[in-house]
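Reviewers of the previous submission asked for a worked example of the structure-prediction workflow described in the proposal, so we include one complete record here. The input consisted solely of the amino acid sequence. No template or homolog information was supplied to the procedure at any stage.
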Amino acid sequence: MDERTKEEILSRARFAHDLTEASYQQNPSTKGDAGWVEKQRILLADMSLHLLQTALRNGELSTDDLKRNLYSILTISDQLLPGHRLKTVADDLYGP
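From that input alone, the workflow returned the following structure tokens.
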């Protein structure tokens, strides 16, 4: 990917990230509320944008950042896809 394209994607991702974080912070739902799943979907989108930024950042790919991004995505997704043991997979990223 050329540098101009990468910078354009990252610029748009920063804008999307700001909107997503603002939406998450404005959502008052707590676990058990009717709006909880929607709030978790917003959080999943936020974490996905973090993954995009990690993947396209200049220099070597940070394995620590990648693990952190994937851990968050899998942990949130575990609530949205029960029965698939995604939290177990997430925990294995930091296994023994």
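The chain has one domain: 3-92. We consider this example representative of the routine output the project will generate in years two and three.
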